[in-house]
Amino acid sequence: MKSYIFEVDSPSAISLVEEAGDPVIFSHIHGIEIPNAIRFKRFRGEITKTQESSALRVYMSDIDAGRLARADYQLSEVFIRAEKLSAKYSAKTGSRSLDVLHVAAAIECGCTDLASFDERQRKLAKLVGLKLIPSKSQSR
Questions:
Q1: What is the DSSP letter of 73?
Q2: Cβ 70 vs Cβ 28: under 8 Å
Q3: What is the mean pLDDT of residues 10-16?
Q4: In sequence order, what DSSP letters do the residues of 15-70 get, joined into one string?
Q5: Which pLDDT belongs to residue 25?
Q6: What mean pLDDT is predicted for residues 114-140?
Q7: pLDDT > 70? residue 140
Q8: pLDDT tens digits, residue range 32-87?
Q9: b/e map 81-97, b = 16+ CB within 10 Å
Q10: Is-cis flag, bond preceding 35, omega within 30?
Q11: Nearest 5 degrees, angle CA 36-CA 84-CA 103?
């Protein structure tokens, strides 16, 4: 979402996307989370309706142009993996359901790296052996 609506980490997120090249793999979770996060920013009054519409249009054009590509995995396997990760790590990491689902999806589609600015998600990803991008947290 940081590539579609400006936030503190947006310049770093945009650089990561550019460095990754096309296509950037995204999960079913992103397919819900990105547009919903954009709409939620409008709900909170952080962006206008015009900004919301523009961001959603750019997001959809990235999918249509092949800049974003849906991950290849069995969705049921993502949920099975997420349940196992939750049982093993959530009490230690404080991971939320979406954090666990993101990491599970990355594992199920064979990713070795995970790009995230979310500290809980990063902590879980590191515990399961995924390489973190960016390598150091840039959260403020």
A1: S
A2: yes
A3: 80
A4: HHHHHH-SPEEE-HHHHHHHHHHHHHHHHTTSS-HHHHHHHHHHHHHHHHTTSEEE
A5: 87
A6: 86
A7: no
A8: 999 999 999 999 999 999 999 999 999 999 999 999 999 999 999 999 999 999 99
A9: bbeebbeebbeebebee
A10: no
A11: 40
Q: What is the pLDDT of residue 1?
A: 62
**In whole angstroms, how far apart are CA 20 and each of 17, 88, 114, 133?**
5, 31, 11, 11
The token pair at 91 is 């009490």
CA nearest 30: which of 125, 99, 108?
A: 99
| Region of residue 21 (phi > 0: left; psi between -120 and 50: alpha; otherwise: beta) | left
Calpha distance 3→127 (Å, rounded): 27
* Cα angle for residues 106, 108, 110 (degrees, 5° grid): 70
What one-character DSSP code corresponds to residue 117? -
Give the Cα separation of 57 and 64 in Å (integer).
Answer: 10
Closest CA to 85 of 73, 100, 97, 75: 100
